[in-house]
């Protein structure tokens, strides 16, 4: 008799994880389910972005000085809404919000976690149908419960993350999240409207043949970075090739592909962004947490991303992230 392998939904998986940890309060499981719900709502709008008047700029400019697309605003409101009305999150920081928001109601003030989001990363690609994504990071609050969260609850080093993940709105919609117990991927099954476990216990291959970098900035990179990139190109001639360059311009898609297939993603310092372009708190830290749990590495070129002590909510960082073997090789080029 054919036995259908029971495919766990996100809800079933998080509840299963709770059963394995009897002392778990269920707050993290509830928070992850809330994020999954908001992701399904965002997915509906992303999938029809070409059909409704949701394209184009919302007429605003966000704290990053970037034109805000209506979908950015919609996504931000969806994630903020489910978390504000949930039982697990006391406040959020977001690329779309100038400052953090303490939800400041009795239930939220007694919640254990805070979240940081890039609600819709790569949103410049919305109008041309390139994959985009949501990135999130979860910390235990460090200020006492019973009061609104404070800035220090958000300015924690990435090593303190309890969980981190992303949703990639691509050929299929996937939610991937890491806890200290592992990295698991869930694909949205439209037939039941649920994220279903499709990629259990993701490990990043120790080596890969993909390097991801914006070649348009090549001559702005430090010499040692240029040397490493040319080393990757030479791999096509020497043994160990062929290396290939893949760069979508949407971090979630680029890092997701390299997580699964193996590879390295780089956003080095450039002349106009000497401190890097990507945001430490809600782009670099969550992916650094995910890649390390999956066996990879992530640095800013000088130190482990997860050990950087944040000073500002929207601070930028350089980023080198991917397969451990490739990162070890890169580090031989970056050593002072
Ligand atoms: P560039 C998108 O705007 C983003 O923040 C990331 O998703 C992406 O990896 C990066 O910027 C692309 O930047 O300068 O190469 O276009």
Work out the helicity level: 25-40%
Instruction: Count the DSSP helices.
Output: 9
CATH level 1 name of the largest domain: Alpha Beta
Biggest beta sheet summary:
8 strands, mixed
**Architecture of the largest domain, according to CATH?**
2-Layer Sandwich
N-to-C series of helices and strands: HHEEHEEHEEHEEEEEHEHEEHEEEH
Shape: globular
Q: DSSP strand (E) fraction? A: 25-35%
Distinct compounds present: 6-O-phosphono-alpha-D-fructofuranose
Overall pLDDT confidence: 91
Assigned CATH superfamily of the largest domain: Fructose-1,6-Bisphosphatase, subunit A, domain 1
Secondary structure: number of strands: 17
Spans with pLDDT under 50 lasting ≥5 residues? none
* Overall structural domain count: 2
The whole-angstrom Rg is 20 Å
What structural class do you assign from the helix and strand content? alpha+beta
Widest beta sheet: strand line-up = 4-3-5-6-7-8-9-10
Amino-to-carboxy terminus distance:
63 Å
CATH third-tier fold name of the largest domain:
Fructose-1,6-Bisphosphatase, Chain A, domain 1
What's the gist of this structure?
This protein has 336 residues and is α+β, with helices and mostly antiparallel strands. Helix content is 31%, strand content 25%. The chain has helices at 10-20, 27-47, 70-84, 106-109, 151-154, 223-234, 251-261, 280-293, 324-334; strands at 57-61, 67-69, 89-94, 101-102, 113-121, 132-140, 161-169, 173-179, 182-189, 194-199, 210-212, 244-245, 264-267, 278-279, 297-299, 316-317, 319-322.
């Amino acid at each position: 008799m054919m036995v259908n392998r029971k495919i766990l939904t996100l809800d079933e998986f998080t509840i299963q994880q709770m059963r394995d940890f009897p002392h778990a309060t269920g707050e993290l499981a509830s928070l992850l389910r809330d994020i999954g719900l908001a992701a399904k709502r965002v997915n509906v709008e992303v999938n029809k972005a070409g059909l409704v008047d949701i394209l184009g700029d919302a007429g605003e400019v966000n704290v990053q000085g970037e034109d805000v697309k209506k979908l950015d605003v919609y996504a931000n409101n969806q994630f903020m809404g489910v978390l504000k009305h949930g039982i697990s999150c006391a406040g959020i920081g977001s690329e779309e919000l100038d400052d953090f928001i303490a939800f400041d109601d009795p239930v939220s003030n007694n919640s254990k976690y805070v979240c940081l989001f890039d609600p819709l990363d790569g949103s410049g690609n919305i109008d041309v149908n390139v994959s985009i994504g949501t990135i999130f990071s979860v910390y235990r609050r460090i200020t006492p419960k019973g009061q609104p969260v404070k800035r220090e609850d958000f300015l924690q080093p990435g090593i303190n993350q309890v969980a981190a993940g992303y949703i990639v709105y691509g050929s299929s919609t996937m939610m991937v999240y890491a806890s200290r117990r592992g990295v698991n991927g869930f694909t949205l099954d439209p037939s039941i409207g649920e994220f279903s476990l499709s990629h259990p216990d993701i490990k990043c291959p120790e080596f890969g043949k993909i390097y991801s970098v914006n070649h348009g900035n090549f001559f702005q990179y430090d010499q040692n970075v240029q040397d490493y990139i040319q080393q990757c190109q030479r791999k096509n001639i020497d043994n160990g090739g062929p290396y290939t360059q893949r760069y979508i311009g949407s971090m979630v898609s680029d890092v997701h592909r390299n997580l699964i297939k193996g590879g390295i993603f780089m956003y080095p310092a450039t002349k106009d962004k000497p401190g890097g372009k990507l945001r430490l708190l809600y782009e670099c830290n969550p992916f650094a947490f995910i890649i390390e749990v999956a066996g990879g590495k992530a640095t800013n070129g000088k130190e482990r991303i997860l050990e950087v002590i944040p000073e500002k909510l929207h601070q930028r960082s350089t980023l080198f992230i991917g397969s451990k073997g490739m990162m070890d090789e890169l580090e031989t080029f970056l050593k002072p």
